[in-house]
Design brief:
Shape: globular
Largest sheet: 2 strands, antiparallel
Strand order of the largest sheet: 1-2
Number of strands: 2
Helix content: 40-55%
Strand content: under 5%
Length: 81
């Protein structure tokens, strides 16, 4: 598991990141999707996004770390949440 403690819950402007609620089973499935050596990179990237959202990392930080747009991160949050 990756520790995003320095980024979690950080405020960007007026907005503070809100953690995406994951059950233990959901988190386990997402982490398992990232493990296979031949996992598709798009699946791994989305799994990382969901895990970071669950750790309350702001969308702007997630976008910067993974090289995607903030809007993309927000879209993935809407789809998953």
């Amino acid at each position: 598991m990756i520790d995003y403690g320095a980024l979690a819950g950080r405020a960007h402007g007026e907005r503070t990141a809100v953690a995406l609620v994951l059950s233990a089973e959901e988190r386990e499935k997402i982490e398992a999707a990232m493990r296979p050596a031949k996992a598709e990179q798009r699946i791994v990237r989305r799994a990382r996004v969901v895990l970071m959202m669950a750790d309350a990392v702001p969308a702007a930080d997630i976008a910067g770390l993974l090289g995607v747009r903030v809007r993309t991160v927000e879209t993935w949050r809407q789809r998953f949440g």
